[in-house]
Amino acid sequence: MRTLHVVLPNDIDDPRTPSGGNVYDRRLLRGLSARGWTVVELAVPGSWPAPSQDERAFLARTLAALPDDALVLVDGLVGSAAPDELVPAAKRLRLVPLVHMPLGDDAEAKVLTAARAVVTTSPWTRDLLDVPPPVTVATPGVDPAPLAPGSPAGSRLLCVAAVSPHKGHDLLTDALTSVGQPYECAYVGSLTREPEFVAALRDRAPGTIRFAGPLVGADLDAAYARADLLVLASRGETYGMVVTEALARGVPVLATAVGGLPDALGEAPDGSVPGLLVPPEDPGALAAALRRWLTDADLRARLRRSAVARRETLTGWDVTAGIVADVLTGIPAVPAGFPGDA
Q: What confidence tens digit (pLDDT) does each residue in 125-156 have?
């Protein structure tokens, strides 16, 4: 039986703060368990990636308690911020960081350089890293889902993201305010990460925008099923799992062309794109794209057909787990007598 120790932020299962990174970690670990791995979770408390000294000390003690040659997967939110704890431990452990959002600093580079291998969740992230170990991309999977029926007017818009500046809800609100066409839009995501931002946004948002808060499970499924178009105005994104969640239901996407979002949107087998991409930080371009969607029935039909075709090309979480399992299996043992932390 193969054993994998996994270092995770301790809020991975907190329903109040759902995130793509947490979903990815949980689904990956389930997939590895299904493949016969014994997964030992090591949740570490902390305000990662900016931990306190006590939180760093807890991580150091957690790593020190692991046996020599242990295979350790470390979520990048923790690992990339803790070189003083991880680099010494990497001398005796088979350390593999899982990088969602790269920090791009010297601390992260030290950790990645000391690792035996690196896994990233998107090609965009991989291309940002400049480290010597092998870097493998394991993009998120997606579960099969029923096709969303869609409405004739295409006016039911959905944004699934924690309501925060990083996700561009201010830009989207500006665009929706000026679009000049009938619509309704649900903001589905945490309202507590940036409370002052959310309060200011509520003050100026029209009544056609609904702040739904975080949804999970059947409630989130119902939100996707009702949607005509997924809209993301993100200022940065490593991949955008909500994009493939929408495409799995045949729902087209309007998003900013940042980070890994174009990769997640992808193409249908005929080369068509199942959505629209606009420049970031441009509410005018976002409003123009929304106006096109809401007024052009032929465009809506074309993008829906493309989204349904793209749906057939999506891969499941079993594929993601298989890629990571191959990486982990290929890491050789630490040679006997290899110097450790001491």
A: 998 887 876 899 999 999 999 999 999 999 99
Strand partners, 184: 156
DSSP state of 219: H
The arithmetic mean of pLDDT across residues 284-292, rounded, is 98
Q: Counting every residue, how long is the chain?
A: 342
Left if phi > 0, otherwise alpha if psi is -120 to 50, otherwise beta: which for 337? Answer: left
Query: 6 - beta bridge partners?
Result: 41, 73
Local structure of 71: helix, strand or coil: strand
Give CA–CA dist 315/325, Å, rounded. 16
Q: Could you give phi then psi for residue 169, rounded to 5 degrees?
A: -65, -25
Residues 218-236 as b or e (16 or more Cβ within 10 Å = b): eebbebbebbbbbbbbbbe
Residue 42 has pLDDT above 80, yes or no: yes
Distance in Å from the first CA to the final CA of the chain: 29
| CA–CA distance, 31 with 27 (Å, rounded to integer) | 6
Global confidence as pTM: 0.89
C-alpha atoms less than 13 angstroms from C-alpha of 342 in its C-beta half-sphere? 3
Neighbours of 301 (CB within 10 A): 12
The DSSP result for 24-44, as a single string, is HHHHHHHHHHHTT-EEEEEEE
User: What single-letter DSSP state applies at residue 5?
Assistant: E
Q: How far is CA 256 from CA 24, 282, 337, in A?
A: 22, 9, 51
The H or E element that residue 63 is part of is: helix 53-64
| Tokens representing residue 196 in the block | 């002052």
pLDDT at 230: 98
Phi, psi at 302, each rounded to 5°: -65, -45
Looking from the CA of 47 toward its CB, the CA atoms found within 13 Å total: 6
CA atoms within 13 A on the CB side of 297: 3
**In contact, 163 and 190? CB cutoff 8 Å:** yes
